[in-house]
Structures are given as C-alpha cells and as structure tokens.
Batch of 2 targets.
Target 1
Amino acid sequence: MSTIPDYTPKSNEAEWHITYRCDLACPNCNRLCFLPPTTPDMTLDDAREFNRQARELNWFPKIVILGGEPTLHGNLFAFIEVANELSPGRVEVWSNGYRDAAKQQLARVREEGRAKVCEETIKADGCMVLPQADFFLAPKDFGVINHRPGHNHAAIGCGVSVDAGGYAICSIGGAIDSVLDLKLRTKQLKDLFDPEFAHRQTCSLCDVCGRELGITSHHIAKSQVMHGSLMSPTWQAAVKRIEQRKKEGDGS
Ligand code: SF4
Ligand code: SF4
C-alpha cells in the first residue's frame, strides 16, 4: 500500500491564467507579474481543451478567470462563455480593476451576469505590497527538504493552475514552473489526479517555493531584494536570466 500523502486536488476549482501580463507590478505578486511573461496568453482552444479533458474526468470545477490582469486579454468575454459551457453559473473573474478599460469590462461582466466579479482582488489604488513575502525563498537553497504544501495547494483550498503551458496542482504552480523553467506542468489533466504524479509535482514545486517557510535572519542573509521582493539564489538566477533574455530580445 502506498504511504505517500494524498496531494490530488480536492478544492473543485480551476484557475485559468489567461495572461500573465499585468498593468501593475506589485512586489511579492505570487504570479511574478512584475517580470515579462515567460508563458504566453491562453487561447480559447486551450480553454476548450481543458473543458474536454475535465469532462472526460467527469470533473466540473468552479472556474476562476485571472492573470496577470485578465482584462488585458482581448478575449475575456469569450473565455467567460467557454467557462460557462463546463461549469454554468460557477465562473468568477479576478481583476485588479485598476485601468479605466478594466473598470469598464468589469461593469459589463456585472451587468451581463455570466460571471461573478471578485471584489477582493480590486486594487483601486494601484500597486501594493502583498504581506506574504516568503514565496521566493526556495527551501532547497537553505537545505530544507520535504517542505509541505500549504495555503495555495488544490488539496488544501485553492484551485489547480491552468495556463498555456499546462496544468499544475498548486494555484501558483504554473507561474513558478514558468519562471524557473522546471518543466513540471503537464498537458494531461488526469495526471493531477494520479497520487504519485501529484506527490512528485507538489514536492518539486514546494522545494523551490517558500510559502509559509517564514523569514528568518538566516534566510535574509542568503537572499536579496529584487523587484521589491526578497529572493533566494534560485529565484535571483531565474530573474536575471529572464531579464537578460528580454534585454537581448529588445536589442538593447
Ligand atoms: S495586480 Fe495582481 S497580478 Fe498584477 S502584479 Fe499585482 S498582484 Fe500581480
Ligand atoms: S508550491 Fe508553494 S504555495 Fe504551492 S503548495 Fe507548495 S509551498 Fe504552497
């Protein structure tokens, strides 16, 4: 009998990151949207493929459409319709509601009533520093292994991560995988419900994500602040690599 913990999704929720672009750049953004996106926007075909695989699994989760800033994606309203095809009446939009264009689109979402607007994600005053500041402290950088999943994991409460790169069990797993280029996401939704895959992917993500690791003087000593966020060496290297690639792409 297997003795591994059961990390398969229990929350009955899926988070569609339709874009990792954002008009804000909040320090400690747990989708790292202060960086240039390393995963492209989702297409409507990506969303339909998610629906197809979810139906095969007889799984009809609540769907959260977010980003990044979802109102920057030109197809927000079409995504809402595709989400309603799988989970009618159980669709939410999480937006920062900051730009005028975002406010207008959210007004339309409220008026049409095809999705609920989450009021808690609205950042009327713009960028803010999120209180959880330990995301980018990779436990493995401090010799910590077997760091257990916590807050954002779909076995505990949040949704699975869906983006153009595939699926991850932790809601921020897609962003982590994308920025650190770990190739942990799967294109097969059923993998997330396989206990061995779930355990392996979770452990690999939690080895590099410090959520709930805590900030100690030891952690601070080995870290540096980048983009207003405290980062351990694993994250520093990834940010430098992404910024270098962007510089080369810009030809500057
Ligand atoms: S508004 Fe949200 S997605 Fe955008 S940078 Fe801030 S926390 Fe991240
Ligand atoms: S990857 Fe981070 S946020 Fe996700 S379950 Fe692991 S420690 Fe928690």
Target 2
Amino acid sequence: MKIRPSNLACLALCPKFARVDNPLVTDAGTLMHEAIATGNYTGLSESDKGIAEGALAFAEQEKASLAQPVRDFVEKRVYCKALDLGGTVDRLMVGADGTAIVLDWKTGLNMPDDADDSLQVQAYMLGVLDDFPDVHTALGVLTNPRTQSTSVSMRIDRESKAGVTSRILSIIQRADDPFSAPVPGSHCARCRHSHRCWALVPTIRASAVTVLPGVLELLRDPTVVTPPPEIRSARAVLRSILERWCEAVKDADNEYLKQGNDPPPGFKRMIRSTGLRIPENERLAALHALRAAGIDDSIIAAGCNLALGKIIEAMTLVVGDKKEATALVQGAVAGIAVEGTTEYLTRDRKGVDDATLVAMLRKALPSGVEQDGP
Ligand code: SF4
C-alpha cells in the first residue's frame, strides 16, 4: 500500500485507517498554503491575510535563528529511502552549519485530536537527512497559523535517525499487514470504512445503550424544545452515529435501484425531477442563449451563485497554474467577495474525554435508568 506522510498519524492509531477527503477543508487548506508559500495574499479575507502574514513572520524568525547564509526552499520535495516515502515540505531552511529547519503548516482542520501529527514532519526530516548529505541535524516544527499553536521543536540527527526510521517503519508495516486488526477511536470520524467497520460495533452499542434510556425524550421535536446542555450533547452523539449509518444505507439503496433491482417490499421506485440544470460544459452556450433572448446581464447575475473555487479550477485549465489562477480570480473580486463561515458542533475530546462524557450522560438522562450492558 502506498502511504502518504499525512496519513501516518492516523495509521499509527489504526492500521486500517483510510481517509475520507473533505474537498471543502482541502481547498481551504490549499489556498492558505499557497498564500503562505507565495506571499501573495491577493483576494484573501482580512482575517486569512493576517493568518498568512503571521505564518511568514514565524518562518522568518526561525530562519534568523540559523547560521547564515541560509538555503531557503518553499514546497520542497524530499524522499526517505528507508521508508520509501516522499512528500513536500512546506518550508525548508538549511543553515550554513548543517542544521536544517522543517516547517509544516497545518491549515486544515482534519486531524483527530488524539493523532500524533508530528509523525508526518518526522518523515520529512528523515527525507531531508537523506537528500542533503551536508545536513547533520534536522529540526522540525509543526504550526497551525489559524490557532497560532506550535509543536515542540523535534530534532533528528544522524545518530537518532535509525530509531525514528524504525518507529515509522513499524507503522507502515502494520498498515501493510493484512492481518492487522482495526483500532477504533476519534480518528474513525475521518475513515472511509466507518460505516461498515466491525471494530466499531462495541462503540456503537455502548453509545446506544447510553442514549437509549432517554431516547423518547431526545426525539421530541428538536425545534421546539430547549434541552439542557447534557441532553443536547446526548442528542448530538445519537445524531452523529445515525447520520453516518443513514448515509451509507442511502448510498447502498440508491446503488441497488440503479442496478435495476425491484424495490424491496413496502417501497416503490420514484423518479423525482430535481429541476432543469445546465451541464457544466454547456454553461457558456446557456449564457449566450439567455443574452440572445434579451435577458439582461443584471438578471442573469442575480440568478447565479458564483463559486470561486470552481472558477479557479476552470481558470487553472486556461493558465495552467493554480497559483496564478487563484491570484487572478481572487484579485478580480477583492473587496466584493465575502468570507462564508459555518458553525457546527464537533466532539471536544480534549475538553471532556469519552469515558467522562458517557458517565455524565448516564447521570443526566431524563429516565434515570441505569443500564449495565447491552
Ligand atoms: S473505522 Fe475501523 S478501520 Fe477505520 S479507523 Fe476506525 S477502526 Fe480503523
């Protein structure tokens, strides 16, 4: 199995982990990375611009700590032979005395809170020691410019290299081993197997036992009740478990119908129109047709929902370079585009761990029924 350094942290937690990519999170992370790499903030929101500036200032501070002159690389490919693992270092600075600093920006939000995300940086540091024979010590720092949190500085020199290599190698070998057993935890929320993973059964059963005594209370119309915080929490646990399962069931049922199977007893096949839409490759033709029909641009614009990500994607095909396309598109709408945000609940395992939450919910559930097990 070809392993990506960014998956090492989750593979250390579960050898069967397979990441579900979230394009929204990935896109946001890529744009911020590009701004930090190029120093071109055109079109970034004021808050994101401040974040990118802070990251660059941090990098300059690290650079100043090295023996001068410094060889400075942005988005540098490195490769560790012993691990057969390559990756791109966000910023690599090599001091004149053979000390190198590897900086990795964590701009996405897709790491479970119990993952040891320094493993990715350590793999890069090993790659630097392989690719730069004059480097005797690699220092690694992982920093999240959004939260301004920074990891402790990691250090690998030629003497400690073998130990770190063997630790990461054992994670890779465990992931490659078909007999390795899955290990559940908060990382399951990012795993492609989570809707069908047998290792999750005890977790799901325990969660259900916890929330079921109060399930009738929990299922009261959520828009008209104002539950106390503990009940809201129990409801959120139940929702996240059911949501994941429902999505998988829906996909499986849709696939079953698509294959021409008869609907199961009690159900019938329905075909519902989702409205007329213009296929992506016909958008220009549609625009010309609307104009030819005398429909004013202001009316067409009012009916459009311009997704900048999509326009950047299309522009990249024209100019052949995503950074250039991003600067062009974002620059064009600077001062017009507004930043969208969303608010949602997510588990805070650092604040309240699973065992404490379960105990708290058992106490707080309205029925007060104690359950000993399934
Ligand atoms: S869902 Fe299963 S395979 Fe995926 S991370 Fe969790 S335990 Fe591992």
